[in-house]
Design goal:
Rossmann fold; globular; binds adenosine-5'-triphosphate; about 200 residues
C-alpha cells in the first residue's frame, strides 16, 4: 500500500492472458511514426479494417482525433508534443491491458519521446516507421499544411520548421512513399504473425 495517499492497486481476475485466450490474439501497440502525409492514418485504418474482418479487437488512436479531446489543451511546442505522446502511450497501455490491438498514428517526431513510449510499453511497443520523403509528403499535401507552413502560417511544422528524427532501429520500416497501400498492409500483417500477435489458421 502507498501510505502517502492510501492508494491500493486492485488486481483483476480477468487477466490479460485470459483476454488473449478469449480473443484468439495477443494485444499490442503498433506505433506508426513518420512525417505528416507519410500515410500513418491511412495505413493504420486500412490495417484495422483487415484485423476487424478477422474479428480482432482493435482501436486506432489518431493524432488529430486525440487533439480534439484527450489532448485538446496541448499545442505543438516541444513540451506540448512530449506531453501529447506521454498521454497517448499511457492510454495505449490501458487498451493493451484490455486485450486490444492499438494502432497509433502520430508524427511523434522526437526519438526521445518514442523511447519513453517504448520504455512504458516494453515488448508491447512495435515501432513502425512510415518512410516517405519530405518531397513526396509535400507533393501529397493532404491537409494543405505544407503549403501553409512554407508560407509561414503554421509554426513548428515537422519537416519544415521543426525536426523529424528518423527512427534508427524501428521494429519495421514500411515504404509508404513508393509502395502501394495494399502491400504495406500485407507487410505489417506478416510482421504481426512473426511477432506472435496472432497465428495463421
Ligand atoms: N502506401 C501508402 N500508405 C499510406 N498512404 C499512402 C500510401 N500510398 C499513398 N498514400 C496516400 O498518402 C496520403 C497519406 O495521408 P495520411 O493522412 O494517411 O498521412 P498521415 O501520416 O496520417 O499524416 P498526418 O500526420 O498529417 O495525420 C493519403 O492520401 C494516402 O492515400
Ligand atoms: Mg494522420
Amino acid at each position: 500500500m502507498n501510505t502517502l495517499n492510501n492508494l491500493v492497486w486492485h488486481h483483476a481476475t480477468v487477466t490479460r492472458q485470459r483476454r488473449a485466450d478469449l480473443n484468439q490474439h495477443q494485444s499490442t501497440v503498433l506505433w506508426f511514426t513518420g512525417l505528416s502525409g507519410a500515410g500513418k492514418s491511412t495505413l493504420a485504418h486500412a490495417l484495422e479494417e483487415r484485423l476487424y474482418q478477422m474479428r480482432f479487437h482493435t482501436f486506432v488512436l489518431d493524432g488529430d482525433n486525440v487533439r480534439h479531446n484527450l489532448c485538446k489543451d496541448l499545442g505543438f511546442s516541444a513540451d506540448a508534443r512530449v506531453e501529447n505522446i506521454r498521454r497517448v502511450a499511457e492510454v495505449a497501455k490501458l487498451f493493451v491491458e484490455a486485450g486490444v490491438i492499438v494502432l497509433t498514428a502520430f508524427i511523434s517526431p522526437f526519438a526521445e519521446d518514442r523511447a519513453k513510449a517504448r520504455q512504458l510499453l516494453g515488448d508491447d511497443f512495435i515501432e513502425i516507421y512510415c518512410d516517405c520523403s519530405l518531397e513526396i509528403c509535400e507533393q501529397r499535401d493532404v491537409k494543405g499544411l505544407y503549403r501553409r507552413a512554407r508560407a509561414g502560417e503554421v509554426k513548428d511544422f515537422t519537416g519544415i520548421s521543426s525536426p523529424y528524427e528518423i527512427p534508427e532501429q524501428p521494429d519495421l520500416r514500411v515504404d509508404t512513399g513508393s509502395q502501394d497501400l495494399e502491400s504495406c498492409v500485407t507487410q505489417v500483417l506478416d510482421y504481426l504473425v512473426q511477432r506472435g500477435v496472432y497465428q495463421l489458421k
